[in-house]
Amino acid sequence: MRFCIEGAAGLAYLESVKCIHRDIAARNVLLSETHQVKVSDFGMSDERTMMQDEKLDKVPIKWLAPETMQQRIYSLKTDVWSYGIMRYDSIQVWEIYAEGYEPYPSLSNIQTRAKIIVQNYRMEMPKGTPAAVSQLIAQCWAKNPAERPAFTTIHQTLQDIAAKESTTT
Fold first, then answer.
1. What is the tens place of the pLDDT at every residue in 84-143?
2. What is the CATH number of the domain that holds 57?
3. For the chain, is the Cβ count within 10 Å smaller at the N or the C terminus?
4. Catalytic machinery residues
5. Pair 85, 25: CB distance under 8 Å
6. Which domain holds residue 132?
7. What is the C-alpha to C-alpha distance for residues 19 and 167, in angstroms, rounded to an integer?
8. pTM of the complete model
9. Are 65 and 122 in contact (CB under 8 A)?
10. Would you say which domain of life the source belongs to (predicted)?
């Protein structure tokens, strides 16, 4: 849970300086020598709150928000969507709850896009995921970007969940 909180804190900072990362994924999260989470790979980042890209060449489809797949729009809220996926696939949640599988493991990129956009499909959280974490991720995956929480809210919610877990164990 600490990794989840630290990742959210780093992304809350990016949000506060209006930086869209555009490539939030486990492969772009590093651990320092002291095991602190560091968000990396700012090659696609942009210092705006919203932007439209001309094409989606060589982008990780399985981490993209529906509006990015449909309209090529990136925003702070598309980073929130990707954080929900990252939390699902990475050290941040997947290794904790789902043993490291890639998101949408049985689907191709084309199938993933169709299921998310046409069928409004969302992955199930792994067994053993706390209900409060599952609810938070469901908010991150809201179809309407305006309904997704800010990273400051995600960070605070995770801190609250961790505090409750520590008092019950």
1. 887 655 444 443 455 556 788 889 999 999 999 999 999 888 777 889 998 999 999 999
2. 1.10.510.10
3. C
4. 23
5. yes
6. 2-168
7. 35
8. 0.85
9. no
10. Eukaryota
